[in-house]
Amino acid sequence: RPNLGYVRVNAHHTEFCYGDLVEVVGPWLDGIILPMVETPDQLQSVDWLLGNLEVDAGMEKGTIDLIPIIETGKGIARLDQIAAGGAAGRIRRLAFGAGDYTHDMNMEWTLAEEELKEARAAMVLQSRAHDLDPPFDTVWIHIKDLDNLEKSAVTACQMGFQGKMCIYPPQVEVVNRVFTPSEEEVAFAKKVLAAFEEAEKQGSSSIQLDGYFIDYPIVYKAQRTLEIMAEIEG
Fold first, then answer.
1. How many other CB atoms are found less than 10 A from the CB of residue 31?
2. Given pLDDT bands bounded at 50, 70 and 90, which one contains residue 86?
3. Which residue stretches of the chain are H helix?
4. What backbone phi and psi angles, to 5 degrees, belong to 147?
5. Which of 38, 51, 111, 205 is deepest in the core (most CB within 10 A)?
């Protein structure tokens, strides 16, 4: 669903996290962005607090979404535990933060972002392994460089992320364009489903279409493309 209201609070280990959550939780809030997550215990603690604040506000427990940002070496190393054991049900997806991650790991965050491949792959893999939605990719800090932002977004999309966090208004159009299926992709997806449905009626589960070999994985991808568009369109 578009246009949801999320608030990024201070990290769990800071003195400000509790007060931030107390101030912002209410029926008007869709979700919390929690930075610098390194252990499932941090998520369970925030989940407990959110549940009590929801009850105080007359809300159903678990209403507020919680998106952890994984942005340290410890966080990436414990991704399996975080995805498996942190506030089950409230966490539907993770987010990756490259700024603090590269600082923590003493890496240079280059424009090409080759150094992020391993962490990005781990984010997508562990999200899938624990039945979470695909994660959100890191922000892009070169706010005037929209060309390399687009390259970063394309890479993230191709690796299996579902979106990318933004910190500067002009970035939003670029990111939305990259992560929204194109007219050509939507048209091809519809063509695949129609052709495959006809093939199944004739007893076949694989066909060739426009030079592509089409079987069930390609069909499922086409279905996903149309589901994404339906959600975007509302």
1. 19
2. low
3. 17-24, 40-56, 73-77, 79-85, 98-104, 117-129, 146-159, 169-179, 183-201, 216-233
4. -65, -50
5. 38
Q: What is the pLDDT of residues 10-31, one digit of tens each?
A: 999 999 999 999 999 999 999 9
Residue 127: the pLDDT is 96
Total residues found in the chain within this entry = 234
Helices 17-24 and 40-56 pack at an angle, to 10 degrees, of: 30
CB 70 within 8 A of CB 82: yes
- Tell me if residue 108 falls in helix, strand or coil: coil
Residue 207 banded pLDDT, cuts 50, 70, 90: confident
Single pTM value for the model: 0.87
φ and ψ at residue 62, rounded to 5 degrees: 90, 0
